[in-house]
Design goal:
The structure holds 2 protein chains of 2 kinds. By secondary structure, chain A is α/β, with parallel strands linked by helices. In chain A, 24% of the residues lie in helices and 32% in strands. Chains A and B meet through strand 1, helix 3, strand 4 and helix 4 of A and helix 1, strand 1, helix 3, helix 6 and helix 13 of B.
Chain lengths: 433, 290
């Protein structure tokens, strides 16, 4: 009989809007004058809340927001749960509550077993310390005992492939070495319940594969795992259950295939004005994306496009003051998590750049006919100040389907008429020499 | 409510009823210090302290010499201005030793206070990504100052040798005064660290606070300038007790602090315990607002 590993009943987390605007220019830390004002009125508020039975600390007038609401589920020992959902759906909040980093506002959760959480790779690493020192430091921060770290030490070093640099300060490491070491320490964490957030989103493809392999090992060892990811193929491969969060609520739970399919189909084929939902803006408000949509030559937003026709990605965006190094673009991704390509408006020589002016801009990128394979595609926004910082870096905001119909050879069409092997399906010229 | 509980009990039995290792629910009001858990995480406390110590003087030319230079130069300045020019009385002890004996615990205190008050804000990343008893952060910040303190103490020992001062039997009380200074630094540090998370004003008040506090502490002058009962009452500043205690324990100062120490100890404990409870109360919001 399987036993409970995690039981969650009615968990909810409420944030005050002010506290959420960490990156926003308008965010202001509470200052002393606020406190003095609060202190002066405290006796009155305390008295009033005593009689009304409310919570004196949380004035109702504050704008609040539920990052998570009414979440209830059971996870049994050995379950590998994939937690999916778009940015801001509450995935990270859930992990933070379960790992006790933050408290829920309501509800209750019970955890049966030692909990290890991995919300970020390399937490607590100190750049001045050597690899050796950081293994001990990071291990103990993640909750390992000294004896455990000592036992796993050689394995950690071997997995990270940093034997030669053990006594070098990690600030001299390449970013690849750093990530390998950080993941390696985390991978040797040995809790009964493991909470992992997007750890695999880092590093090169080869390293990601290695991480996935290690994750599979962890999964097979009978531990309970919570795995937050945007990588649907990883979730499908590793997880035995999945949970979909949308706007802080759980909208699907159970079969991995069903839940991931539902997630993928929930991504709209256009985004912005018509979609109504949120708009994407940089933290300082200098760039605002009003809408992103995918259109055919007639300007229609279709859910399905044919590969024999060009497909147009249309950005409508407001720019406060265009800078010379502003790069506007997107990643085209497959639902399996892989990025097929990235395109920026200024990839061509300078003369060919579309002009970008202050105010409203409409930029159109043409995906040529005869390029894409059949299947679903996802689009994420990538707007940056070149090599300085990301202005807008989103999850998949738009999704569209492509039907493969650009091959004219009788032999070309795929057997199932949907797609050929490979991520893309361009047709090349063949000649005899 | 009762139906929910009943349901839970039934399903627990069905699943082979184990007691949960961790129960998560919103907390309200004052909560316990949970020193047991802090003890379970003692290795982390050790590693955090060790990190602070190892990192402190990395990439500095003079390295750990900074631990000695700080009190040394302050002592020289004090000796010149207060000792030579202002002819400040020093309980019959050479002024240089008199002031260094006070500056040694004071430097430990003010560094510990400063480090711990800024510790949470400086560890924002840890607070948001990992769970552990948050008390470990300010405690390790103060603990890490002990190494500097020992170096400064060695300097003091050297100066005492030069001046031919040998500590008497009172020296066995020295650890107590170190502990008292530690408790005061941590107590105030806990209050400030927790407030600093929410009100960044704190960061700017710390330099003023330590400066005023320094002059409110008998470092450049002896507390014996005050007549009783004012001298005893002076112990309300716990650092007055610590500093006078150091002079008494190490230099055999004829002006034994006596009841002043009792007052200082009581106040230090009060600050420490209240600070720890306030810290625990605010702890639940750290990750969200830091």
């Amino acid at each position: 009989m399987s036993q409970f590993a995690v039981r969650v009943r009615g968990i909810g987390k409420q944030y005050h809007i002010g506290a959420l605007q960490h990156n926003g220019a308008r965010f202001r830390y509470k200052a002393f004058r606020d406190v003095l004002a609060e202190a002066a009125t405290w006796p009155w508020r305390a008295l009033r809340s005593r009689f009304s039975g409310g919570n004196g600390d949380a004035p109702e007038s504050d704008a609040t927001f539920w990052a998570l609401r009414d979440l209830s589920f059971d996870i049994y020992q050995g379950d590998i749960l994939g937690v999916i959902g778009r940015n801001g759906a509450g995935k990270s909040t859930l992990l933070k509550i379960l790992s006790r980093i933050t408290e829920p506002t309501e509800g209750e959760a019970e955890l049966y077993g030692r909990v290890g959480s991995l919300l970020e790779v390399g937490t607590g690493f100190h750049p001045e310390l050597t690899g050796r020192d950081n293994i001990y430091l990071n291990g103990s921060i993640l909750g390992m005992r000294k004896a455990e770290i000592r036992r796993a030490f050689d394995e950690i070093v071997a997995f990270a492939e940093i034997e030669k640099f053990l006594d070098t300060p990690v600030k001299r490491y390449s970013s690849g070495m750093f990530m390998r070491l950080a993941f390696s320490v985390a991978a040797h964490l040995n809790p009964e319940i493991l909470l992992i957030d997007e750890v695999l989103a880092v590093g090169d493809t080869q390293f990601q594969d290695k991480c996935l392999g290690k994750m599979g090992e962890v999964a097979r060892s009978g531990r309970t795992v919570f795995f937050v990811s945007h990588n649907m193929s990883a979730v499908r491969m590793l997880c035995t259950k999945a949970m979909l969060l949308e706007n802080g609520r759980m909208t699907a739970f159970g079969d991995v295939e069903a839940v991931t399919t539902r997630y993928l189909s929930s991504i709209p084929s256009h985004h912005g004005r018509e979609g109504g939902a949120q708009q994407y803006a940089s933290a300082d408000g200098s760039v605002r994306v009003r809408s992103v949509r995918v259109e055919d030559a007639q300007g229609r937003c279709l859910p399905v496009f044919s590969s024999s026709q060009p497909i147009y990605v249309v950005f409508e965006l407001d720019i406060e003051k265009p800078t010379a190094d502003l790069c506007i673009g997107f990643d085209l991704r497959s639902p399996n998590g892989g990025t097929l390509l990235r395109s920026y408006h200024n990839d061509l020589p300078r003369e060919a750049w579309p002009p970008v002016q202050a105010g409203r801009n409409v930029l159109v990128c043409t995906l040529p006919a005869g390029l894409l394979n059949g299947g679903q595609y996802l689009l994420s926004l990538r707007i940056s100040e070149h090599f300085k910082r990301w202005l807008i870096h989103t999850d998949d905001v738009v999704s569209f389907h492509v039907v493969l119909d650009h091959g004219e050879s009788p032999f070309w069409a795929a057997i199932d008429h949907n797609s050929r092997p490979g991520a893309i399906a361009p047709i090349f010229e063949w000649r005899a020499h | 409510m009762s139906t929910v509980e009943a349901e839970v009990r039934v399903s627990e039995e069905a699943a082979g009823a184990a007691t949960p290792t961790v129960r998560i629910r919103p907390s309200r009001g004052w909560i316990s210090l949970d020193l047991k858990q802090l003890w379970e995480y003692r290795e982390l406390l050790f590693f955090l302290t060790w990190r602070e110590i190892k990192v402190r003087y990395k990439q500095t030319v003079l390295g750990a010499a900074w631990a000695i230079l700080q009190p040394l130069f302050t002592m020289l300045v004090f000796t010149l201005f207060f000792g030579r020019l202002a002819k400040m009385p020093s309980d019959g002890i050479p002024y240089s030793v008199f002031s260094l004996a006070a500056l040694t615990p004071w430097t430990f205190f003010s560094n510990g206070l400063n480090q711990s008050a800024n510790s949470l804000v400086g560890s924002a990343n840890l607070l948001q990504k990992v769970y552990f008893p948050r008390l470990a952060i300010p405690i390790s910040a103060v603990l890490s100052g002990l190494v500097d303190f020992l170096l400064a103490l060695a300097l003091l020992g050297g100066l005492m040798l030069v001046e031919g001062i040998v500590p008497g039997r009172n020296v066995i009380w020295l650890p107590f005064f170190v502990a008292l200074g530690f408790a005061t630094a941590l107590g105030v540090g806990l209050w400030l660290a927790a407030m600093n998370v929410q009100y960044r004003d704190i960061r700017y008040t710390i330099p003023f606070l330590t400066q005023f506090w320094m002059f409110a502490t008998p470092i450049a002058y002896p507390s014996s300038l005050l007549p009783q009962p004012w001298r005893t009452l002076y112990g309300v500043n716990p650092m007055a007790g610590v500093v006078e205690g150091f002079r008494w324990a190490l230099l055999d100062a004829k002006t034994a602090p006596g009841p002043m120490i009792l007052v200082s100890t009581a106040i230090a404990l009060l600050v420490l315990i209240s600070g720890a409870y306030y810290f625990r109360r605010m702890e639940r919001t750290f990750a969200d607002i830091v």
